[in-house]
Amino acid sequence: MKLIFVRHGTAEDKKKNQTEMDDFKRRLTKDGAQEVKEMVHSLHFIFRKIDVIYTSPLFRAVQTANIVYSENHKSEYEILTTLDPFSTPKEFKNSINDLDTDGVYCFVGHEPLLSQSMNYLLNKNCEIRIELEKGGVAVLAGESLEELKLTTILSPRMVTKLDF
């Protein structure tokens, strides 16, 4: 079982023209979209074997998930409401309890839910501080949800410095 966590890329500011934007409609900036494209392209070996891409319903996450999907058109694609910023790590875990342990799954969402969910999956009794930067990627792998280990964590800046 492999779980790939991707934080959406840099999005528009919440305040635009001195009015509060609807958080569900915020889009990726041009730079944010480019950053995610470069990350997905550079890490193609991670993204090419995904069985299902799950995304938060917020627009910037959907845009990010579409970029991940562009690297792997064989993936299934689903909106997962427990990836929205108002969900809890327990709700997220409950929504993925029945995933096939032979699968590779990608989850595109937001902080702090992604890091809290990874912490919850890795060790419910001890706080492990993991936080994804915008456009960052983390991979958990194991035989089951109960046996997951953190195998990879990368920021977009780290990816651009790597030469694959």
CATH superfamily: Phosphoglycerate mutase-like
The counted number of beta strands is: 8
Q: What structural category characterises the helix and strand content?
A: alpha/beta
Helix content: 25-40%
Give the mean pLDDT.
Answer: 88
Low-confidence spans: pLDDT under 50, at least 5 residues?
A: none
Indicate how many domains the architecture comprises.
1
Second CATH tier, the architecture: 3-Layer(aba) Sandwich
Shape assignment: globular
- The N- and C-terminal alpha carbons lie at a distance of 24 Å
The major beta sheet can be summarized as: 6 strands, mixed
Widest sheet: strand order? Answer: 5-4-6-1-7-8
CATH topology: Rossmann fold
The CATH class assignment is Alpha Beta
Strand content bin: 15-25%
Binding site for substrate: 60
Protein name: Phosphohistidine phosphatase SixA
Pfam families: His_Phos_1
InterPro entries: His_Pase_superF_clade-1 (IPR013078), His_PPase_superfam (IPR029033), SixA (IPR004449)
Quickly list its features.
single chain; 164 residues; alpha/beta; Rossmann fold; 6-stranded mixed β-sheet; two-stranded antiparallel sheet
Task: Describe what you observe in this structure.
33% of the residues lie in helices and 21% in strands. It contains six helices and eight strands. It has helices at 30-42, 44-47, 59-71, 89-96, 113-122, 156-161; strands at 2-7, 15-16, 19-20, 52-55, 76-79, 104-109, 137-141, 149-154. A hairpin with a 7-residue loop joins strand 7 and strand 8 (149-154). The protein has one domain (2-8, 25-161): Phosphoglycerate mutase-like (Rossmann fold). It is globular. Strands 5-4-6-1-7-8 form a six-stranded mixed β-sheet, with helices on both faces. A two-stranded antiparallel sheet has the order 2-3. By secondary structure, it is α/β, with parallel strands linked by helices. This is Phosphohistidine phosphatase SixA. Substrate binds at residue 60. GO terms for molecular function: protein histidine phosphatase activity.
